[in-house]
Write a structure and sequence with these properties.
Chain lengths: 113, 112
Amino acid sequence: KAGVTQTPRYLIKTRGQQVTLSCSPISGHRSVSWYQQTPGQGLQFLFEYFSETQRNKGNFPGRFSGRQFSNSRSEMNVSTLELGDSALYLCASSLAQGIDTQYFGPGTRLTVL
Amino acid sequence: QKEVEQDPGPLSVPEGAIVSLNCTYSNSAFQYFMWYRQYSRKGPELLMYTYSSGNKEDGRFTAQVDKSSKYISLFIRDSQPSDSATYLCAMSAPNQGGKLIFGQGTELSVKP
């Protein structure tokens, strides 16, 4: 069974731009969560989607948003990029919402110049 | 103060050594405890999943949870160079849905 896939793997943007990252969960998984990983803050929860609805949200500004499609694929968007948004963005999928084993993708490395 | 504290290391051990990795936490609502392994330029991979207190063993890996002390551990027996990675503890509470709270991660190096 194929794992979680994320595209693109690497991105370079400049301050003020916006970016969209994509995540395809494991087949049959309906829940997708997003995390930001930085050397200083480690892995931090961004949001969780299940059945096309945001179920949970972390402490990030409104510039960070996401959505989930009917096939469970998910996208996250960051608008008005700041230098501090440079990070590895990880997507994790699980069968159901809430407490369930989460399987992570390889991540998208975003660099903001 | 962070909800989950983990010594970032780095930790260097010789091949064959027993490795002990630890996390402490402050939120008594945490009920689900996980250990992930992350190789360089890869996403985290789930190693162990424990509910509430107790021990769980899987091959060379043993996870322990002591809720009274708010302390969790991962032991690696007969460590191998292929175990060299960053180890992350993660926790969740029943009312937090799929939100995992991670430790900073401990960088482990096993020398041949």
